[in-house]
């Protein structure tokens, strides 16, 4: 069986850059990696992503939950599980924790519903290691946008993004073995160094 790593965090936390840097690091060490993202990673998932982030009018809150979940299940079935079965390291930019943080804490949906929907969506698959890149939402949003137009989620009030961050931090407290908090308001090399340490440690276990 391979190894499943996810990156999470508020908008502008630098997950995508860090995910790429991590893949380069691991490939240099000789590991075979699959880099992917949610929502997305498959043709169906990328089509759902367009609806989730661009469609106007946007989906209702529960439909939004189902769409993230639908993209996730397709991703697990088509990409993630087969890659793990082929002994690869899967590095995924967001996964089920994002649904807890955004739809649970951000949208205030019932956390028990989220747990059940996530169970179906992930087929019970849990990452071995989750790197939570933590950043103040205000700073993150400035970094994320840098002049471009915000997508549908980014357009939410800053209070929404504060709740998302709190959600992530609470998750990390409850699951401190799996979820590692990394301060993301630093240079990318510094952040990468911390990530490397956690990943090396986890791969040795
Ligand atoms: P990204 O900006 O990291 O590519 O993620 C896309 C957006 O989707 C981001 O605003 C977070 C949001 N999102 C959710 O609300 N729930 C989820 O389950 C996932 C995976 C992402």
What does the model show?
The protein is of the alpha/beta class and 205 residues long. It has a single domain, classed as Rossmann fold (3-Layer(aba) Sandwich). The protein is built from eight helices and five strands. Strands 2-3-1-4-5 form a five-stranded parallel beta sheet, with helices on both faces. Helix 1 packs across helix 8 and helix 2 runs antiparallel to helix 3. The longest helix has 25 residues. The radius of gyration is 16 Å and the shape is globular. Thymidine-5'-phosphate binds next to helix 4. The site of thymidine-5'-phosphate has 12 residues, from helix 4.
Give a short overview.
With 205 residues, this protein is of the alpha/beta class. The protein has eight helices and five strands, in the order E-H-E-H-H-E-H-H-E-H-H-E-H. The protein has a five-stranded parallel sheet with strand order 2-3-1-4-5, sandwiched between helices.
List the helices and strands and how they pair.
Elements: E1 3-8, H1 15-28, E2 33-37, H2 43-54, H3 61-85, E3 89-93, H4 96-106, H5 111-122, E4 129-134, H6 137-145, H7 158-174, E5 179-183, H8 188-204
Parallel strand pairs: 1-3, 1-4, 2-3, 4-5
Helix pairs in contact: 1-8, 2-3, 3-5, 4-5, 4-7
What's the shape?
Answer: globular
What is the SS-derived class? alpha/beta
Number of domains: 1
| Neighbour order of strands in the largest sheet | 2-3-1-4-5
CATH class: Alpha Beta
CATH superfamily: P-loop containing nucleotide triphosphate hydrolases
Report how far apart the termini are: 14 Å
* CATH architecture classification: 3-Layer(aba) Sandwich
User: Major β-sheet, in short?
Assistant: 5 strands, parallel
Low-confidence stretches: none
Count all strands and give the number.
5
How do the helices and strands follow one another from N- to C-terminus?
A: EHEHHEHHEHHEH
CATH topology (fold) name: Rossmann fold
Please tally the helical runs, counting DSSP H or I stretches of 4 or more residues: 8
Strand content: 5-15%
State the share of residues found in helices, binned by percent.
55-70%
Radius of gyration: 16 Å
Instruction: Provide the list of bound ligands, each named once.
Output: thymidine-5'-phosphate
User: What's the rounded overall pLDDT mean?
Assistant: 97
């Amino acid at each position: 069986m391979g190894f499943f790593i996810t990156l999470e965090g508020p908008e502008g936390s630098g997950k995508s850059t860090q995910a790429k840097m991590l893949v380069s690091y691991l490939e240099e060490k000789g590991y075979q990696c699959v880099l992917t993202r949610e929502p997305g990673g498959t043709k169906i998932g990328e089509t759902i992503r367009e609806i989730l982030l661009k469609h106007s009018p946007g989906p209702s809150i529960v439909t939004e939950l189902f769409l993230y979940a639908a993209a996730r299940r397709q991703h697990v079935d088509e990409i993630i599980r087969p890659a793990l079965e082929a002994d690869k390291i899967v590095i995924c930019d967001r996964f089920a924790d994002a649904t807890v943080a955004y739809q649970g804490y951000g949208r205030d949906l019932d956390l028990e519903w989220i747990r059940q929907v996530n169970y179906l969506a992930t087929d019970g698959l849990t990452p071995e290691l989750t790197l939570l890149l933590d950043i103040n939402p205000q700073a993150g949003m400035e970094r994320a946008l840098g002049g471009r137009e915000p997508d549908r989620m980014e357009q939410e009030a800053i209070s929404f993004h504060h709740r998302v961050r709190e959600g992530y931090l609470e998750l990390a407290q409850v699951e401190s073995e799996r979820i590692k908090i990394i301060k993301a308001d630093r240079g990318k090399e510094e952040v990468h160094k911390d990530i490397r340490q956690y990943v090396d440690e986890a791969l040795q276990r």
